[in-house]
């Protein structure tokens, strides 16, 4: 086998320059031939192309030969290959996978561009675009986010359009009647020498399905309907156990993982003692860090399957994209 690989490498050194002159070819290398959905054990000369085309669509001089001196060739589609740009920089037009945020937060990730009622909308998390329920429609959205140098008005890219409120568990009640009753009872307890004190709380009425929000761009020219280092979304999918997934985020960039759990119910901490329970979530391993919130999660066919919003050092938690699109009436 090593002899075959060495032979392929030797042939490629002679043919690489000529192969790269062919239309659509963006890279050449030595690897194992891919056939019937898997890698074989046959060393081959690999030609990466922007897009696979039928032979009839290419001139004879641009066709990749089936073999060179007995060494087979293979053609794989990679799309155009570009130098990576830091996700924390300013992008115009802006793709998914880059820094963004409500004017009053640090920074999160622009997940992707979607449509509502035919209009373009930026999709990310509530806690990225709506400041965990504190935002209001029309609030300034910056790209990059404030923590990455985004400043108003120069870096404003959108305004908050809508969000799904997060239902927090056991938050202090803002009911005046409940507060008065608790104050009276605590006064009585103090007079009787008790050190126990009560607090009025508002319990979470229902569990959450999504941490999601959308923002309306100021100019459609600022929209790039693809995801940094991934490309264009190829439809919607549904996250399944064992599915290979990928994302591009503000902090960790392009990462890959596998859905390890489905039907997840999880308590998520939002700081300041606030916790929210989410149901019907997807869980993967360590493929994200703080600042990646809002990242679009795709399968290996570039179908959108989730919206990343939480995690730990060992886990990544995602909303099912079906629930996100339903809650905000979205379409691609």
Structural summary, described in words:
The chain starts with a helix and ends with a helix. The protein is elongated and about 95 Å long. The mean pLDDT is 89. With 332 residues, the chain is mainly β. It folds into 3 domains: 2-77, GMP Synthetase, Chain A, domain 3, CATH 3.30.300; 94-166 and 206-328, Beta Barrel (Thrombin, subunit H); 171-202, no CATH class. The strands form 5 sheets. It has a 7-stranded antiparallel beta sheet. A 6-stranded antiparallel beta barrel has the order 16-17-18-21-20-19. The chain has helices at residues 2-20, 126-129, 176-191, 321-328, and strands at residues 25-35, 38-49, 67-68, 71-77, 94-96, 99-102, 108-109, 112-116, 119-124, 140-142, 156-163, 171-172, 201-202, 213-217, 223-227, 244-249, 253-269, 275-284, 296-299, 304-311, 316-320. Strand 3 and strand 4 (71-77) form a beta hairpin.
